[in-house]
Design brief:
This protein is about 35% helix and about 25% strand. Strands 1-2-3-4 form a 4-stranded antiparallel beta sheet. The chain has a 3-stranded antiparallel beta sheet with strand order 5-6-7. Strand 5 and strand 6 form a beta hairpin. The radius of gyration is 16 Å and the shape is globular.
C-alpha cells in the first residue's frame, strides 16, 4: 500500500492547522500506514515546517498549490524497512506557461549549513549536529 499522509492546497493546510487538526490528522494517518506512533520531534517538524511552507506559498500568491505531504517515492514497497518518503511534493501550474508543475521539497529545520569540502559537496555541516549530513537535494535524488 502506497503511503500519503495529506493532500490539500497550501491555503487549506493553513485552515486545517488553525483548527488544530493538521498534526493530529497527520499522526493518525502515519499510525495507519506505519503501524506505530510518530515521534514528538516529527510532530513538531510538521507543525513548524509545513505551516511555514504553506505561509510562504500563500504570501507568494500560490495558495492554491497542492501540498502532498509525506508520500512514498514509489508505488512499490521496498523489501527492507518502510517506504522512502518525500516530505512534500508541490503540485500546481506554472504561472506563465500554465503547464503542470511539480516541486519536491525536503524540509529541514536547520538555520544554517556549510559545505564540508568541495570534494565532498554531498555533505553539509549543521550547527548542533556532530556528523555531517547528506545534502537535502541528494536525499531527494536518492528516493
Amino acid at each position: 500500500m502506497s503511503m500519503l499522509l495529506l493532500r490539500l492546497s497550501a491555503q487549506d493546510l493553513l485552515t486545517l492547522n488553525s483548527r488544530r487538526r493538521m498534526v493530529p490528522h497527520l499522526a493518525a494517518r502515519y499510525r495507519y500506514f506505519r503501524g506505530r506512533d510518530v515521534s514528538d520531534s516529527e510532530r513538531e517538524a510538521w507543525a513548524e515546517s509545513l505551516v511555514e511552507l504553506a505561509e510562504d506559498l500563500v504570501a507568494a500568491e500560490r495558495g492554491n498549490v497542492e501540498m502532498v505531504v509525506e508520500c512514498a517515492a514509489t508505488v512499490d514497497e521496498p523489501e527492507k524497512g518502510g517506504p522512502r518518503l518525500i516530505d512534500v511534493v508541490l503540485v500546481g501550474r506554472h504561472p506563465e506557461t500554465r503547464l503542470p508543475s511539480f516541486q519536491l521539497v525536503e524540509l529541514k529545520r536547520w538555520s544554517t549549513v556549510t559545505q564540508v569540502e568541495a570534494a565532498t559537496a554531498e555533505l553539509v555541516s549543521v550547527p548542533g549536529i556532530k556528523k555531517p549530513k547528506k545534502h537535502p537535494a541528494l536525499q531527494l535524488r536518492d528516493t
